[in-house]
Hints:
Elements: H1 2-6, H2 12-76, H3 79-91, H4 98-112, E1 119-126, E2 131-134, E3 137-140, H5 141-148, H6 156-162, E4 169-171, E5 175-177, E6 187-194, E7 201-208, H7 209-216, E8 224-228, E9 234-237, E10 256-259, E11 262-268, E12 274-280, H8 281-328, H9 341-374, H10 377-381, H11 387-395, E13 400-409, H12 411-416, H13 421-439, E14 444-449, E15 452-458, H14 462-477, E16 483-493, H15 499-510, E17 520-522, H16 536-547, H17 551-568, H18 572-592, H19 597-600, H20 604-611, H21 616-640, H22 644-656, H23 663-670, H24 674-685, H25 689-707, H26 712-718, H27 724-735, H28 739-752
Parallel strand pairs: 16-17
Antiparallel strand pairs: 1-2, 1-7, 2-3, 4-6, 5-6, 6-7, 8-9, 8-12, 10-11, 11-12, 13-15, 13-16, 14-15
Helix pairs in contact: 2-8, 8-9, 13-14, 16-17, 16-18, 17-21, 18-21, 20-21, 25-27, 25-28
Pfam family, one: HTH_18
Organism: Paenibacillus endophyticus
Protein name: AraC-like DNA-binding protein
Amino acid sequence: MAFRRLFPSRSLFVTSLLFFICIIVLFSLFNGVSFFFFKTKLEEEIIASNRMLLQHSAERYANHFSRLQSLLYSKYKEVDVQSFNRQIRLFGEAGTDYLTAKKISSQLRNEANDPLFYLESLILHFGGNAFAIDQEGSSSAEDMLGRAYQSSIYTYTYWQNQLLTDNTLTLLPAVRYNRSVELPQGSTLMPYVYKTLGSQYQIIAMLDMEKTLQALFGDARSRAFAITSKDGLLLYSSDAELDAGSIPAFGEGESHTLINRQYWFRTSDSSGLHYFTRVPSQAITSQLSEWNFTAAIVLALMLIVGIAASILFSKRLELPVKQLVDVFSNRRQDKQPSPIEEYAFIDRNIKELLKEREEVQAKMAKQRTLLTNFGYMSQLKNINEDIVELEQLLAMNESYTVVLYELRFRGSMLSVLNLRPENATLAIREHIRHIAQEHCPSSHTFQMEKNYILTVIKESRGVEIEAMLEKMKGMLDQCKHYCLVTIAVSARFEHPSQLGYAYEQVQMLSKQAKLLDETQLIQEPRELPDPPRLSLLQEQELITAIQGGQGVAAFMLIDSILEDMYTAGAAALHYDAFSSLVFEKVAASLGAMQLDASQSWAIKPLHYKLAACCTLSDYKEVLSRLLEAAAVLMIENRADTFDPIAARVMEIIEKQFAEELSLDYLAHTLNMSSAYLSAYIKEKTGTNFSEHLNSLRVSKAKELLTGTTLNINDISRQVGYHNVTSFNRMFKKGTGVAPSEFRKQSVLERKIG
C-alpha cells in the first residue's frame, strides 16, 4: 500500500527505473557471495597450483633425461661408431675413413635435429687422436670443442680429462656458450656425457636449456626455476641471481616453504635430481590484495554507475515518449491499451508511420535502378552530335544491340600518309555511320572516346546485323595498313537504362582481341590463357644476357615467349603487359649500372613505341631494338669504367671463389691495405668485396642446383661455404628462397616448359 501511495501510476519512468534497480540488486548480491566464497579458497589454490606445476615439470624433465640416456647409449654402441673408434686408434687421423665419419655425422643429424630432444648438438669425441664428429661434420677435437663450442669452463682440456674419469653417465652443470659459427646467437647448454670405463671415446649431448625450459616448465619470467644434483650441485638456474647458496633447506616431506617473502617449492625424481621453483610472496598476496581491492571498487562503481544510469536512462526514455504523447494526444483509439500507457499509444502510431514509410520506400525502390543507370546518359549528352538524334536515342522504348569499334592506329603509317589520328577517326566514323544506316536505318553512331566508336542498333533482325557486320569488316580491312579495328557486339538489351551495362559488355569483349593483322569480330567471350610472366630462370637469363652485352641472346629468349603467347591465343592486353614487364627489367638492369641521364635516354623513345605496337611483328621489332640498345649501353659503360685493379680483383674472385678467400688475402696479393682496398672496390664497382664474392658463389650454386644432382652439402663446399647453415642463409638472402626450394622450382619449370 505504501508503494501504491508513492507511485500511484505505472508510468514509463517508474517502470524502467524499478526494472534497472532490481537488476543492480541481483548482480550486487551475486558478486558479494562470490567474493567471500572465492577469497578463502584463492590462496590455497595458488599454492597448490604452483606445487602441482613443479611436480609435472619434474616428471617431464625426468622422462626427458631418461630418453636422452637411451639415445646416448644406443648411439655409443652403434657398430659404425665402435668400428671407427678402433680404426682411428690403430691408424691415427691419417688413416681416417672419412666416408664412415660422414655416415656417422648423418646418423647424428637425424637425432640432433629431432625437435622433441631439444638438442643443440650431438658430439662424438675420440680422445686418443683428438678427433670429433657432430651432426654438421667432423674436425679435430680441439677445433670443435675449443672453438665451435667455446666455453670458459668446458674447454678442450676439460673434455680430454673427462675421458680419464670413472664416471659413465654424467649430467654436467649448464653454462652459457659463446657465439660461434655453430652457435650464431649463443646458447645456455647442459652437457650430458656417456662413456664406458676405460674407453677412449665419449658421446656428448648438448641440451638447449632455454628451449627445454620453455617446453617442459613454461614461462619463467615471474618464477625462477633450478635443478640440483643429489649432492646439491647446481645444474641449472633460469635466474642468474639464483645459486646453490640461496636455495633454502627443506624439512623431511616438506614441499614448500616461505622464506624472506618468497615461496619456495621443491620436488625430486627417481634419479635423485632435485627441482626448485621460487615465487615471490607478493606475487601471491598481491593477487589476493588486488582481488579484494578490485572487487570492492567494482562493486562500489557498479552500484553508483548502475543507479545513476538507471535514473538517466529512465528520464531519457520518458522525455521523448511524453513529447510523442503530447503530439498524438488528440487522436483516440478504441484498442485495448498496453500495460504501459505511453508505449501502448506509441505502438499504435508508430505502426501507422512505418506502414506509410514502407509504401514510399517501395515506390522509390522501383525507380532506383532507372535513376542509377540513367546517370550513364550524362556521358552521351557530352557528345557533340545532332541533338535530335541524341533525344531519339534517349527516348527509345524498344530492344537494341550495341556495337563497339576499338581503333588502334599504326603511328608509322599515319606519318607516311600525313594523317592525324583525329582526322582518321572522323573518316572511319562516317564510313561506319553510312554502312550502319544502310543496313539498319534506326541505328545511331557516336564517338565515345578518342579510340572508341559506338553504334546502337534498334529493333533490327539478326540477319540485318550480320550483313552489316560483314560489310563493315570488309571496309575496315581496307584500312588495316594504318588502323586495326576490333568490333565487339553485345547481347540484346530491352531498356535504355541498361545502356551502361551494354557498353561495359562490349568493352570487356574488345579486350579479348588477339594480335592479328586484320579486323576482328568478337560476339562471344572466350577463355583467355594465363597472363604471361618471366619464370625465375628466364628472368636470370635475361638479366645475365643484358649485363653481358648480348642483345641477340636476350631477344631470342623474349622471342620464344612471344611465339608461345601467340600460339596460346593471348589477347592484345597480354602483349602490352608483357612488353612493359620486359622494359622494366631492362631499365632496372641499366639503373644498376648507374648510367647517367644522357646514356639511358636512348631507350626512352622505345617505351612509347611499345605502346603503339599493333601486331606481333611490331612487338618483336621494338623489343629487339630495345634489348640491342640496352646491350650496347652495357658494353659502352664497361669500356668507359674499366679499372685494372678492380678487374684484377674480379679475376681473382672468379678463379678462387671456392677457396677460403678473404679481403686480407686480396690486399696482400695487390700490396695494398685492407681498408683502402675495401673502399676502392666499393667506389669503382658500387658493391663491396663480400657482396661480389657471395653473389658469384650463389650464382655458381644455382648452376649446380639446376644442372647436377649433387646434394646441398656437396654444392655448399664446392662453391666455398664449408658450413651448410651459412650457405643456406646466404643463398636465401640472394634469391629469396632456400636451395632445396630453388631446385624444386627449377625442376617444375622445366617440366612445364
